[in-house]
Write a structure and sequence with these properties.
Elements: E1 5-12, H1 16-27, E2 32-35, H2 42-46, H3 49-65, H4 82-99, H5 102-108, E3 112-114, E4 120-124, E5 127-130, E6 136-143, E7 147-149, H6 163-166, E8 175-179, H7 183-195, E9 198-202, H8 214-226, E10 230-232, E11 237-243, E12 246-251, E13 256-259, E14 261-264, E15 268-270, H9 277-280, E16 303-305, H10 316-331, E17 345-347, E18 353-357, H11 360-364, E19 369-375, H12 380-385, E20 391-397, E21 403-409, H13 413-426, H14 430-434, H15 445-458
Helix pairs in contact: 1-10, 3-4, 3-7
Amino acid sequence: MTAPLEFDVIVIGAGPAGTAAALRAADLGAKTALITRGAFGGMAANEGPIPVRTLAHAARLIREAHQLPDYGIAAERPSLDYRRLLERAREVVAEARGHSTLLKQITDAGCVLFEHSGRASFVDAHTIRSERAPTLVARRIVICSGGVSRSLNVPGAELTVTPADAFTLTALPKSLVVIGAGATGVQVASIFNALGSSVTLCQAGPRIIPTEDVDVCDEVANAFREDGISVLENCRIVGFEAMPSGVSVKLSEGDAIEADFAVCAVGWMADTGSLNLTAAGVQTDQRGFIEVDHYLRTSASHIYAAGDVIGHAMLVPQAVRDGFIAGNNAASAETLRVPADVEPIGSFTDPEYARVGLTEAEAHETYGVLCSRASYAETTRPIVDGRTRGFCKLVVDRASLKLLGCHIVGERAVEVAQMAAIAMTAGLTITDLARIPLSFPTYGNVFGRAALRAVRMLGHKGAYDP
């Protein structure tokens, strides 16, 4: 039997969290191994944000093409070659990988990479065995194995497809039922609706994207309906049945919806099924995510975890930050804590939506709150571009004048939200923000107008009108 390869740190998973963890550990001088079931980059690069954002861009181009007559431009109605679009998505993934310096940084730092190793599992608390890589042993281990789509526990659930499956269909479906209207579900619904599919969006609760501010939920739902998406709230799915041309989605009221495909987007769970965590003494919470402390240390003191597998903010920027912290703590005596950072969150739907900080309801639990709002329809750049749907809402603490939250629906909302994140991180007051002369005309002006409106509502003087 071949002797195990020995390392100081083993990182399981080469997505954003795992890559950051391995690079940090190697930079600190630890002999580091990075092992991944598939290709370097993980789901984020190969199945997630990069290819999905490519399809979202195609959807944007189609929407903008419909505006051409409004600007005196004659052109034929756009038609979609879906196979070519999927080829373009693969090209973008390859180009992004080709231009990324992460792989070179990993190898230059001395990290040993084991790609396409199959499923990894703990033999004991320090030993990792996989299907197609040598057995590895290390003093410390970082688990960044990511997550997988959750399925519904109803008859016929095997007839559904995951969001990742939906984005790799070989032909554009004529009709689609999307079950679950969280961030992933609304993105699937919005993209396929723009590409030309007939889409029904089913949400079990009373509001779509329920983690967002209620005004955002209502605005996005209304916009979806205006664009032809059938949005069904308080909709309970009881089963699925195969049909000659697709699938029938059975509802609790006795009704059914027939479609080419049913996409199950009801949540995300930790990908730990094959890890044999019990052998390592690593505990999970009631939802199946790995439990960690503020240092990203698991119940086994020499094992850390980061990224989707811990079930916190399951987004790439947060995964990179947490991976860095976990890799740092695994490789050195210095112990970093996960900071209480301002975390902008958004989705590339049409219209886009984004948030930073507290919702209005959350803020009212602790603070004396003022809310100001500016619409896209009163802002020059959206008028120029014919994209006047949406608003910017600011949640302000009356006592300190600090910005507690920012909620945006509309064109470039995800990018405008970065302004709020920077302002909140810097601790700027609402009067500070109102005095900043933002470039004109830009989408950022909607943020400036909302800030100025808040100052006027508070009765403070000295604001600069953007």
